[in-house]
Amino acid sequence: MACLDIEANARTRVRRRLRLGLWGPIAVAVLALLWMVSLLGPSYSNLELYITPPLDAEGTRVQLLRPRGWEPMIFQPGAGQKVWNKQKAGLQVLALTRTHWSSGWPSWLQRVVPGGRANVGSLIVNVFPTKLRTAAIHNAGVELVSRSASPAFPNWNAYTDGVPLGSRYTMAISYNCTNRTTFDNTHSAVMKSVRLYIPVSKR
Q1: pLDDT-based confidence at residue 109 (cuts at 50, 70, 90)
Q2: pLDDT tens digits for range 51-108
Q3: In 3-state terms, what secondary structure has residue 100?
Q4: From CA 159, how far away is CA 3, in angstroms rounded?
Q5: What's the pLDDT at 12?
Q6: Which residues make Cβ contacts (< 8 Å) with residue 175, sequence separation at least 6?
Q7: For domain 44-202, is the CATH number 3.40.1350?
Q8: Sequence ranges of the domains in the chain
């Protein structure tokens, strides 16, 4: 009887070791998958169409692609939740921003997973009345990409000016991210997408 008990215990220990041994490769595979996803970062598929509220009495709207989940900043919260910030000389500003896709993760996990650290970024659309911008705009419509000089606060930025918005306005567009992978995967699509929104009924 004692021999049978010893043999049964040995078999139980072997089965436990086998079960534990299976979890190791599974854990490695999961971590590898998370690492690959973090390296790829947000891509074109993580962008979504956004159509602004009207910026004037004629109902002029802007359509653009924004990183999924980014929302416009609310200017004058007590005055109808306006997203267009009206400045002097007719300038109107729209700003969209949000933290990185991993912002809800614990801080230790953001540090462990490459690309998982928080991303600070914004998409800003400045709309000017065309009649007020009489001077020629250098490199109008050309996307210019730059990086901040500060190593303590890395920031990648895309900027273009002189983009027409119908016949009455021109736009200056700025898109920036502190996460290099996020910026590389999205800036071209975002910058090319900003244009006049035309309802289907008028196309």
Answers
A1: low
A2: 999 999 999 999 999 988 888 887 766 655 588 988 877 889 999 987 555 555 555 5
A3: coil
A4: 79
A5: 67
A6: 121, 122, 123, 124, 157, 158, 159, 187, 190, 191
A7: no
A8: 1-40, 44-202
According to the model, what pLDDT value does residue 101 have?
53
Overall pTM > 0.85 = no
Distance of alpha carbon 192 from its chain centroid, rounded? 15
Distances (CA, A) of 8 to 14, 43, 71: 10, 54, 62
The region that residue 123 occupies, defined by phi over 0 for left and psi between -120 and 50 for alpha, beta otherwise, is: beta
Distance between CA 157 and CA 145 in Å, rounded? 6
Q: Kindly state the tokens that stand for 165.
A: 């918005």
Q: How many residues does the chain have?
A: 203
Phi, psi of 93 (to 5 degrees): -125, 130
**pLDDT tens digit sequence for 110-125:** 555 555 555 578 999 9
Q: Is there a contact between 149 and 88 (Cβ–Cβ < 8 Å)?
A: no
Q: Cα–Cα distance between 65 and 69 in angstroms, integer?
A: 11
List CB contacts of 139: < 8 A, sequence separation 6 or more: 160, 161, 162
